[in-house]
Amino acid sequence: MTDTKKSIHGEWSSRFAFILAATGSAVGLGNIWKFPYITGENGGGAFVIVYLLCVLLIGIPIMMAETMLGRRSRQNPINTMITLADEAGADKNWHYLGWMGVAAGFLILSYYSVIAGWASAYVLKAFTGSFFGADATAIKVIFDDFVASPVKLLFWHSLFMLATMLIVVRGVNTGLEKAVRFLMPSLFVLLILMVAYAMTTDSYDQGVKFLFTPDFSKLTANGVLTAMGHAFFTLSLGMGAIMVYGSYLPKDVSIAKTVYLIAGTDTVVALLAGIAIFPIVFASGLEPAAGPGLIFQTLPIAFGNMTGGWFFGILFFVMLVFAALSSSISLIEPAVAWLVENKDMSREQACIWSGSVTWLLGFGTIFSFNVWSEFKIFDRTIFQLLDYLTANLMLPIGGFCIAVFAGWIMKQQHTEHELDMPNALSYQVWKILICYVAPAAVFLVFLHVVGVL
Ligand code: TRP
Q1: Does the structure show a pLDDT above 80 at 183?
Q2: 20 to 30 A from 138, CA-CA: which of 76, 145, 315, 403?
Q3: Residue 1 — pLDDT band, cuts 50, 70, 90?
Q4: Residue 173: what pLDDT?
Q5: Is the CB of residue 239 below 6 angstroms from any atom belonging to ligand 1?
Protein backbone atom coordinates (compact mmCIF):
# COMPACT_ATOMS: atom_id res chain seq x y z
CA MET A 1 0.00 0.00 0.00
CA THR A 2 1.36 3.39 -0.87
CA ASP A 3 0.92 6.51 1.16
CA THR A 4 -0.74 8.31 -1.70
CA LYS A 5 -3.60 5.86 -1.94
CA LYS A 6 -6.89 7.60 -2.71
CA SER A 7 -10.34 6.68 -1.56
CA ILE A 8 -12.62 5.64 -4.37
CA HIS A 9 -15.29 7.82 -2.79
CA GLY A 10 -13.31 11.02 -3.11
CA GLU A 11 -12.00 13.21 -0.34
CA TRP A 12 -13.21 15.99 1.90
CA SER A 13 -12.50 19.27 0.24
CA SER A 14 -10.50 20.50 3.24
CA ARG A 15 -9.61 19.91 6.88
CA PHE A 16 -12.51 22.14 7.78
CA ALA A 17 -14.90 19.90 5.86
CA PHE A 18 -13.72 16.87 7.83
CA ILE A 19 -14.05 18.77 11.10
CA LEU A 20 -17.58 19.74 10.19
CA ALA A 21 -18.57 16.24 9.18
CA ALA A 22 -16.96 14.53 12.16
CA THR A 23 -18.37 17.12 14.55
CA GLY A 24 -21.69 16.67 12.81
CA SER A 25 -21.42 12.96 13.46
CA ALA A 26 -20.41 13.40 17.08
CA VAL A 27 -22.89 16.11 18.03
CA GLY A 28 -26.39 14.74 17.86
CA LEU A 29 -29.15 13.22 19.93
CA GLY A 30 -26.43 11.74 22.11
CA ASN A 31 -25.55 15.18 23.44
CA ILE A 32 -28.93 16.80 23.67
CA TRP A 33 -31.36 13.94 24.22
CA LYS A 34 -29.34 11.11 25.74
CA PHE A 35 -26.72 12.80 27.90
CA PRO A 36 -29.26 14.70 30.04
CA TYR A 37 -31.55 11.75 30.60
CA ILE A 38 -28.85 9.22 31.49
CA THR A 39 -27.25 11.82 33.76
CA GLY A 40 -30.63 12.22 35.42
CA GLU A 41 -31.08 8.48 35.79
CA ASN A 42 -27.62 8.02 37.26
CA GLY A 43 -27.68 10.68 39.91
CA GLY A 44 -25.89 13.64 38.30
CA GLY A 45 -22.40 14.95 39.20
CA ALA A 46 -20.50 11.71 39.82
CA PHE A 47 -21.79 10.28 36.55
CA VAL A 48 -20.72 13.43 34.70
CA ILE A 49 -17.19 13.20 36.12
CA VAL A 50 -16.79 9.58 35.06
CA TYR A 51 -18.11 10.47 31.62
CA LEU A 52 -15.64 13.37 31.27
CA LEU A 53 -12.74 11.19 32.39
CA CYS A 54 -13.73 8.54 29.85
CA VAL A 55 -13.83 11.11 27.05
CA LEU A 56 -10.37 12.34 27.98
CA LEU A 57 -8.55 9.09 28.68
CA ILE A 58 -10.37 6.63 26.43
CA GLY A 59 -12.39 8.57 23.87
CA ILE A 60 -9.81 11.01 22.55
CA PRO A 61 -6.95 8.51 22.06
CA ILE A 62 -9.32 6.02 20.42
CA MET A 63 -10.76 8.72 18.18
CA MET A 64 -7.23 9.48 17.00
CA ALA A 65 -6.60 5.79 16.41
CA GLU A 66 -9.82 5.32 14.48
CA THR A 67 -9.22 8.32 12.24
CA MET A 68 -5.69 7.11 11.65
CA LEU A 69 -6.73 3.59 10.64
CA GLY A 70 -9.22 4.94 8.15
CA ARG A 71 -6.87 7.42 6.62
CA ARG A 72 -4.09 4.89 6.25
CA SER A 73 -6.18 2.39 4.34
CA ARG A 74 -8.68 4.67 2.61
CA GLN A 75 -11.40 2.01 2.49
CA ASN A 76 -14.50 0.94 4.38
CA PRO A 77 -13.90 -0.37 7.94
CA ILE A 78 -14.07 -4.04 6.98
CA ASN A 79 -11.48 -3.71 4.23
CA THR A 80 -9.46 -1.37 6.41
CA MET A 81 -9.03 -4.09 9.01
CA ILE A 82 -8.12 -6.66 6.35
CA THR A 83 -5.56 -4.40 4.68
CA LEU A 84 -3.97 -3.09 7.83
CA ALA A 85 -3.83 -6.49 9.52
CA ASP A 86 -2.13 -7.75 6.39
CA GLU A 87 0.32 -4.87 6.40
CA ALA A 88 1.23 -5.59 10.03
CA GLY A 89 1.47 -9.34 9.37
CA ALA A 90 -1.41 -9.99 11.76
CA ASP A 91 -4.30 -12.40 11.74
CA LYS A 92 -7.13 -12.05 9.19
CA ASN A 93 -9.73 -12.30 11.95
CA TRP A 94 -9.39 -8.60 12.66
CA HIS A 95 -11.94 -7.97 9.93
CA TYR A 96 -14.67 -9.21 12.29
CA LEU A 97 -14.17 -5.91 14.05
CA GLY A 98 -15.36 -4.19 10.89
CA TRP A 99 -18.39 -6.46 10.78
CA MET A 100 -19.34 -5.77 14.35
CA GLY A 101 -19.16 -2.08 13.53
CA VAL A 102 -21.49 -2.41 10.58
CA ALA A 103 -23.95 -4.36 12.74
CA ALA A 104 -23.74 -1.78 15.53
CA GLY A 105 -24.42 0.98 13.01
CA PHE A 106 -27.65 -0.68 11.86
CA LEU A 107 -28.84 -1.35 15.38
CA ILE A 108 -28.09 2.15 16.64
CA LEU A 109 -29.64 3.85 13.64
CA SER A 110 -32.79 1.76 14.03
CA TYR A 111 -33.60 3.46 17.34
CA TYR A 112 -31.80 6.72 16.63
CA SER A 113 -34.12 7.32 13.73
CA VAL A 114 -37.22 6.74 15.87
CA ILE A 115 -36.08 9.32 18.42
CA ALA A 116 -35.06 11.73 15.66
CA GLY A 117 -38.62 11.19 14.41
CA TRP A 118 -39.87 12.46 17.78
CA ALA A 119 -37.78 15.59 17.32
CA SER A 120 -39.24 16.03 13.84
CA ALA A 121 -42.77 15.69 15.16
CA TYR A 122 -41.95 18.31 17.78
CA VAL A 123 -41.07 20.79 15.03
CA LEU A 124 -44.67 20.56 13.93
CA LYS A 125 -46.00 20.73 17.49
CA ALA A 126 -43.93 23.84 18.10
CA PHE A 127 -45.21 25.34 14.87
CA THR A 128 -48.86 24.78 15.67
CA GLY A 129 -48.39 26.41 19.07
CA SER A 130 -49.06 23.26 21.13
CA PHE A 131 -46.76 24.40 23.92
CA PHE A 132 -48.19 27.86 24.30
CA GLY A 133 -48.70 28.65 27.99
CA ALA A 134 -48.59 24.94 28.86
CA ASP A 135 -47.41 23.75 32.27
CA ALA A 136 -45.39 20.63 33.06
CA THR A 137 -48.48 18.41 33.29
CA ALA A 138 -49.89 19.54 29.95
CA ILE A 139 -46.52 19.02 28.27
CA LYS A 140 -46.25 15.52 29.71
CA VAL A 141 -49.70 14.66 28.37
CA ILE A 142 -48.66 15.81 24.90
CA PHE A 143 -45.59 13.57 25.06
CA ASP A 144 -47.39 10.53 26.49
CA ASP A 145 -50.15 10.77 23.89
CA PHE A 146 -47.63 11.04 21.12
CA VAL A 147 -45.48 8.02 21.99
CA ALA A 148 -48.59 5.94 22.65
CA SER A 149 -49.32 6.01 18.92
CA PRO A 150 -47.32 3.50 16.88
CA VAL A 151 -48.70 4.97 13.67
CA LYS A 152 -47.41 8.45 14.44
CA LEU A 153 -44.01 7.14 15.50
CA LEU A 154 -43.81 5.05 12.35
CA PHE A 155 -44.68 8.00 10.17
CA TRP A 156 -41.92 10.22 11.61
CA HIS A 157 -39.39 7.38 11.71
CA SER A 158 -40.05 6.68 8.02
CA LEU A 159 -39.67 10.33 7.14
CA PHE A 160 -36.39 10.60 9.01
CA MET A 161 -34.97 7.43 7.44
CA LEU A 162 -35.92 8.72 4.01
CA ALA A 163 -34.17 12.03 4.65
CA THR A 164 -31.05 10.20 5.90
CA MET A 165 -30.86 8.00 2.84
CA LEU A 166 -31.43 10.93 0.49
CA ILE A 167 -28.38 12.64 1.93
CA VAL A 168 -26.25 9.49 1.99
CA VAL A 169 -27.06 8.65 -1.62
CA ARG A 170 -25.42 11.87 -2.76
CA GLY A 171 -22.06 10.80 -1.41
CA VAL A 172 -19.28 12.38 0.56
CA ASN A 173 -18.68 15.75 -0.98
CA THR A 174 -22.08 16.89 -2.07
CA GLY A 175 -24.34 15.14 0.41
CA LEU A 176 -22.55 14.85 3.70
CA GLU A 177 -20.46 17.95 3.54
CA LYS A 178 -23.09 20.47 2.53
CA ALA A 179 -25.57 19.14 5.04
CA VAL A 180 -23.44 19.97 8.05
CA ARG A 181 -21.80 23.19 6.96
CA PHE A 182 -24.09 25.68 8.66
CA LEU A 183 -25.99 23.52 11.12
CA MET A 184 -23.45 23.23 13.89
CA PRO A 185 -22.94 26.95 14.51
CA SER A 186 -26.70 27.58 14.59
CA LEU A 187 -27.34 24.79 17.06
CA PHE A 188 -24.66 26.18 19.30
CA VAL A 189 -26.21 29.63 19.39
CA LEU A 190 -29.63 28.22 20.22
CA LEU A 191 -28.26 26.18 23.09
CA ILE A 192 -26.70 29.28 24.58
CA LEU A 193 -30.09 30.90 24.35
CA MET A 194 -31.67 27.99 26.22
CA VAL A 195 -29.02 28.28 28.91
CA ALA A 196 -29.90 31.97 29.20
CA TYR A 197 -33.54 31.01 29.72
CA ALA A 198 -32.54 28.43 32.35
CA MET A 199 -30.74 31.22 34.22
CA THR A 200 -34.00 33.07 34.60
CA THR A 201 -35.63 30.18 36.52
CA ASP A 202 -35.14 30.05 40.30
CA SER A 203 -33.74 26.55 40.02
CA TYR A 204 -30.66 27.43 37.98
CA ASP A 205 -28.30 26.84 40.91
CA GLN A 206 -29.98 23.60 41.81
CA GLY A 207 -29.67 22.36 38.21
CA VAL A 208 -26.02 23.27 37.93
CA LYS A 209 -25.30 21.74 41.33
CA PHE A 210 -26.97 18.52 40.28
CA LEU A 211 -24.71 18.36 37.21
CA PHE A 212 -21.42 19.30 38.79
CA THR A 213 -21.47 18.28 42.44
CA PRO A 214 -20.45 14.63 42.60
CA ASP A 215 -22.08 12.23 45.00
CA PHE A 216 -20.41 8.91 44.33
CA SER A 217 -22.85 7.02 46.52
CA LYS A 218 -25.42 7.54 43.75
CA LEU A 219 -23.28 5.88 41.10
CA THR A 220 -23.74 2.14 40.50
CA ALA A 221 -21.45 -0.20 38.54
CA ASN A 222 -23.91 -0.07 35.68
CA GLY A 223 -23.86 3.71 35.91
CA VAL A 224 -20.09 3.64 35.37
CA LEU A 225 -20.59 1.38 32.35
CA THR A 226 -23.25 3.71 30.98
CA ALA A 227 -20.92 6.70 31.40
CA MET A 228 -18.13 4.90 29.58
CA GLY A 229 -20.45 3.62 26.87
CA HIS A 230 -21.74 7.12 26.40
CA ALA A 231 -18.22 8.46 25.86
CA PHE A 232 -18.03 6.11 22.86
CA PHE A 233 -21.54 6.87 21.71
CA THR A 234 -21.25 10.62 21.86
CA LEU A 235 -17.92 10.67 19.99
CA SER A 236 -19.26 8.17 17.41
CA LEU A 237 -16.50 5.71 18.27
CA GLY A 238 -16.10 1.96 18.19
CA MET A 239 -18.06 1.08 15.07
CA GLY A 240 -16.12 2.53 12.15
CA ALA A 241 -18.04 5.77 11.57
CA ILE A 242 -15.04 7.93 12.36
CA MET A 243 -12.85 5.40 10.56
CA VAL A 244 -14.84 5.76 7.37
CA TYR A 245 -14.77 9.56 7.69
CA GLY A 246 -11.03 9.35 8.31
CA SER A 247 -10.70 7.44 5.06
CA TYR A 248 -11.84 10.56 3.23
CA LEU A 249 -9.35 12.77 5.08
CA PRO A 250 -6.57 14.45 3.11
CA LYS A 251 -3.05 13.38 3.91
CA ASP A 252 -1.59 16.60 5.25
CA VAL A 253 -4.09 17.18 8.06
CA SER A 254 -3.01 16.90 11.72
CA ILE A 255 -5.16 14.19 13.24
CA ALA A 256 -4.40 15.12 16.83
CA LYS A 257 -5.39 18.78 16.66
CA THR A 258 -8.49 17.95 14.66
CA VAL A 259 -9.60 15.35 17.19
CA TYR A 260 -9.10 17.67 20.19
CA LEU A 261 -11.32 20.22 18.52
CA ILE A 262 -14.07 17.73 17.70
CA ALA A 263 -14.10 16.10 21.12
CA GLY A 264 -13.98 19.50 22.83
CA THR A 265 -16.94 20.83 20.88
CA ASP A 266 -18.92 17.66 21.49
CA THR A 267 -18.35 17.85 25.23
CA VAL A 268 -19.25 21.52 25.47
CA VAL A 269 -22.51 20.92 23.60
CA ALA A 270 -23.48 18.11 25.97
CA LEU A 271 -22.72 20.19 29.06
CA LEU A 272 -24.66 23.15 27.68
CA ALA A 273 -27.62 20.89 27.05
CA GLY A 274 -27.42 19.67 30.64
CA ILE A 275 -27.19 23.23 31.99
CA ALA A 276 -30.20 24.23 29.88
CA ILE A 277 -32.35 21.29 30.92
CA PHE A 278 -31.85 20.55 34.63
CA PRO A 279 -32.90 23.96 35.95
CA ILE A 280 -36.20 23.50 34.06
CA VAL A 281 -36.52 19.98 35.47
CA PHE A 282 -36.27 21.26 39.03
CA ALA A 283 -38.23 24.46 38.47
CA SER A 284 -41.15 22.41 37.15
CA GLY A 285 -40.97 19.76 39.85
CA LEU A 286 -40.10 17.03 37.35
CA GLU A 287 -38.09 13.88 37.96
CA PRO A 288 -34.47 14.00 36.70
CA ALA A 289 -34.84 10.25 36.12
CA ALA A 290 -37.83 10.65 33.77
CA GLY A 291 -36.02 8.66 31.06
CA PRO A 292 -35.91 9.09 27.28
CA GLY A 293 -38.76 11.61 27.31
CA LEU A 294 -36.82 14.08 29.48
CA ILE A 295 -36.01 16.78 26.93
CA PHE A 296 -39.43 16.43 25.31
CA GLN A 297 -41.05 17.02 28.68
CA THR A 298 -38.87 19.93 29.76
CA LEU A 299 -37.80 22.16 26.88
CA PRO A 300 -41.36 22.70 25.57
CA ILE A 301 -42.22 24.20 28.97
CA ALA A 302 -39.54 26.80 28.35
CA PHE A 303 -40.75 27.45 24.81
CA GLY A 304 -44.35 27.70 25.95
CA ASN A 305 -43.53 30.37 28.50
CA MET A 306 -40.63 32.46 27.23
CA THR A 307 -40.79 35.51 24.99
CA GLY A 308 -40.30 34.49 21.39
CA GLY A 309 -40.84 30.88 22.47
CA TRP A 310 -42.86 29.99 19.39
CA PHE A 311 -40.02 30.96 17.10
CA PHE A 312 -37.21 29.55 19.22
CA GLY A 313 -39.11 26.32 19.76
CA ILE A 314 -39.44 25.69 16.05
CA LEU A 315 -35.83 26.63 15.48
CA PHE A 316 -34.57 24.42 18.30
CA PHE A 317 -36.30 21.28 17.11
CA VAL A 318 -35.32 21.95 13.51
CA MET A 319 -31.70 22.19 14.63
CA LEU A 320 -32.05 19.03 16.67
CA VAL A 321 -33.34 17.18 13.61
CA PHE A 322 -30.41 18.44 11.56
CA ALA A 323 -27.93 17.50 14.27
CA ALA A 324 -29.49 14.03 14.27
CA LEU A 325 -29.27 13.84 10.47
CA SER A 326 -25.59 14.68 10.41
CA SER A 327 -25.08 11.84 12.91
CA SER A 328 -27.36 9.29 11.31
CA ILE A 329 -25.59 9.54 7.97
CA SER A 330 -22.38 8.44 9.67
CA LEU A 331 -24.08 5.44 11.25
CA ILE A 332 -24.96 3.98 7.86
CA GLU A 333 -21.97 5.16 5.84
CA PRO A 334 -19.70 2.17 6.76
CA ALA A 335 -22.33 -0.28 5.48
CA VAL A 336 -22.95 1.73 2.32
CA ALA A 337 -19.23 2.10 1.63
CA TRP A 338 -18.80 -1.66 2.05
CA LEU A 339 -21.70 -2.49 -0.31
CA VAL A 340 -20.29 -0.13 -2.93
CA GLU A 341 -16.66 -1.22 -2.62
CA ASN A 342 -17.17 -4.96 -2.20
CA LYS A 343 -20.56 -5.86 -3.62
CA ASP A 344 -20.35 -3.76 -6.73
CA MET A 345 -23.55 -1.98 -5.92
CA SER A 346 -24.29 1.54 -7.03
CA ARG A 347 -24.64 4.05 -4.20
CA GLU A 348 -28.38 4.09 -4.84
CA GLN A 349 -28.77 0.32 -4.49
CA ALA A 350 -26.60 0.29 -1.39
CA CYS A 351 -28.76 2.99 0.18
CA ILE A 352 -32.01 1.24 -0.63
CA TRP A 353 -30.81 -2.00 0.92
CA SER A 354 -29.26 -0.65 4.05
CA GLY A 355 -32.00 1.93 4.56
CA SER A 356 -34.77 -0.66 4.28
CA VAL A 357 -33.13 -3.00 6.78
CA THR A 358 -32.72 -0.19 9.31
CA TRP A 359 -36.26 1.05 8.75
CA LEU A 360 -37.63 -2.43 9.48
CA LEU A 361 -35.50 -2.83 12.60
CA GLY A 362 -36.99 0.46 13.82
CA PHE A 363 -40.33 -1.23 14.48
CA GLY A 364 -38.84 -2.83 17.58
CA THR A 365 -38.17 0.57 19.11
CA ILE A 366 -41.48 2.06 18.00
CA PHE A 367 -43.43 -0.70 19.72
CA SER A 368 -41.27 -0.46 22.87
CA PHE A 369 -43.08 2.75 23.76
CA ASN A 370 -46.61 1.46 23.28
CA VAL A 371 -47.93 -1.98 22.27
CA TRP A 372 -44.87 -3.88 23.48
CA SER A 373 -44.01 -1.70 26.43
CA GLU A 374 -44.58 -4.63 28.76
CA PHE A 375 -42.55 -7.02 26.64
CA LYS A 376 -39.19 -7.34 28.36
CA ILE A 377 -36.07 -9.33 27.69
CA PHE A 378 -33.55 -9.26 30.57
CA ASP A 379 -35.87 -6.77 32.20
CA ARG A 380 -35.56 -4.35 29.27
CA THR A 381 -37.81 -3.24 26.45
CA ILE A 382 -36.48 -3.76 22.94
CA PHE A 383 -35.39 -0.13 22.82
CA GLN A 384 -33.55 -0.40 26.13
CA LEU A 385 -31.97 -3.67 25.06
CA LEU A 386 -30.75 -2.21 21.75
CA ASP A 387 -29.33 0.78 23.55
CA TYR A 388 -27.57 -1.36 26.17
CA LEU A 389 -26.25 -3.84 23.65
CA THR A 390 -24.80 -1.19 21.34
CA ALA A 391 -23.70 1.71 23.55
CA ASN A 392 -22.66 -0.28 26.61
CA LEU A 393 -21.27 -3.42 24.99
CA MET A 394 -20.58 -3.30 21.25
CA LEU A 395 -19.01 0.16 21.12
CA PRO A 396 -16.67 -0.36 24.10
CA ILE A 397 -15.67 -3.79 22.76
CA GLY A 398 -15.08 -2.26 19.32
CA GLY A 399 -13.10 0.56 20.90
CA PHE A 400 -11.05 -1.89 22.96
CA CYS A 401 -10.10 -3.81 19.82
CA ILE A 402 -9.25 -0.62 17.93
CA ALA A 403 -6.99 0.45 20.80
CA VAL A 404 -5.24 -2.93 20.89
CA PHE A 405 -4.86 -2.92 17.13
CA ALA A 406 -3.45 0.62 16.94
CA GLY A 407 -1.27 0.21 20.01
CA TRP A 408 0.00 -3.34 19.77
CA ILE A 409 -0.49 -4.65 16.25
CA MET A 410 0.36 -1.77 13.98
CA LYS A 411 4.02 -0.96 13.50
CA GLN A 412 5.22 1.95 15.57
CA GLN A 413 6.78 3.61 12.53
CA HIS A 414 3.41 3.57 10.78
CA THR A 415 1.39 5.04 13.63
CA GLU A 416 4.08 7.62 14.28
CA HIS A 417 4.17 8.64 10.65
CA GLU A 418 0.40 8.67 10.26
CA LEU A 419 -0.34 10.67 13.42
CA ASP A 420 2.52 13.06 12.81
CA MET A 421 2.30 14.62 16.27
CA PRO A 422 3.83 18.04 16.91
CA ASN A 423 6.35 16.58 19.36
CA ALA A 424 7.68 13.30 20.68
CA LEU A 425 6.07 13.73 24.08
CA SER A 426 2.52 13.92 22.78
CA TYR A 427 3.11 10.79 20.75
CA GLN A 428 4.36 9.02 23.88
CA VAL A 429 1.31 10.12 25.85
CA TRP A 430 -0.98 8.83 23.10
CA LYS A 431 0.94 5.55 22.99
CA ILE A 432 0.57 4.97 26.73
CA LEU A 433 -3.11 5.83 26.63
CA ILE A 434 -3.83 3.60 23.66
CA CYS A 435 -1.68 0.64 24.77
CA TYR A 436 -2.49 0.56 28.46
CA VAL A 437 -4.92 3.08 29.86
CA ALA A 438 -7.81 2.81 27.39
CA PRO A 439 -7.90 -1.01 27.06
CA ALA A 440 -7.39 -1.50 30.80
CA ALA A 441 -10.14 0.96 31.65
CA VAL A 442 -12.67 -0.73 29.37
CA PHE A 443 -11.69 -4.12 30.75
CA LEU A 444 -11.96 -3.02 34.37
CA VAL A 445 -15.36 -1.44 33.88
CA PHE A 446 -16.62 -4.69 32.34
CA LEU A 447 -15.21 -6.69 35.25
CA HIS A 448 -16.82 -4.27 37.67
CA VAL A 449 -20.21 -4.78 36.05
CA VAL A 450 -20.08 -8.56 36.10
CA GLY A 451 -19.30 -8.19 39.76
CA VAL A 452 -15.78 -9.55 39.84
CA LEU A 453 -14.44 -6.32 41.29
N1 TRP B 1 -22.48 10.54 18.23
C2 TRP B 1 -23.84 10.65 17.81
C3 TRP B 1 -24.62 11.36 18.89
O4 TRP B 1 -24.09 11.71 19.89
C5 TRP B 1 -24.43 9.31 17.44
C6 TRP B 1 -23.59 8.56 16.49
C7 TRP B 1 -23.33 8.90 15.20
C8 TRP B 1 -22.85 7.40 16.77
N9 TRP B 1 -22.47 7.98 14.66
C10 TRP B 1 -22.16 7.07 15.60
C11 TRP B 1 -22.72 6.63 17.90
C12 TRP B 1 -21.31 5.97 15.58
C13 TRP B 1 -21.87 5.53 17.87
C14 TRP B 1 -21.17 5.20 16.72
O15 TRP B 1 -25.78 11.57 18.74
Answers
A1: no
A2: 315
A3: very low
A4: 62
A5: yes
Sorted by where each begins, the domain ranges of the chain are 15-449
CATH code for the structural domain at 15-449: 1.10.4160
pLDDT at 171: 74
> Is the minimum distance from the CB of 329 to ligand 1 under 6 angstroms?
no
* C-beta 446 within 6 A of ligand 1: no
* pLDDT tier, 15 (very low <50, low <70, confident <90, very high otherwise): confident
Residue 14 φ/ψ region, left for φ over 0, alpha for ψ in the -120 to 50 degree band, beta for the rest: beta
What is the Å distance from ligand 1's center to 284 Cα?
30
> Cα separation of 326 and 116, whole Å?
11
Helix, coil or strand: residue 202: coil
* Dist. CA 35 → ligand 1 center (Å): 12
Distance CA 297, CA 280 (A): 10
- Beta pairing partners, 272: none
- Report CA(387)–ligand 1 centroid distance (Å): 12
CB of 108 sitting under 6 A from ligand 1: yes
Would you tell me how many other CB atoms lie within 10 Å of the CB of residue 181?
14
Q: Report the nearest-CA residue for atom 10 of ligand 1.
A: 236
Model confidence, pTM = 0.94
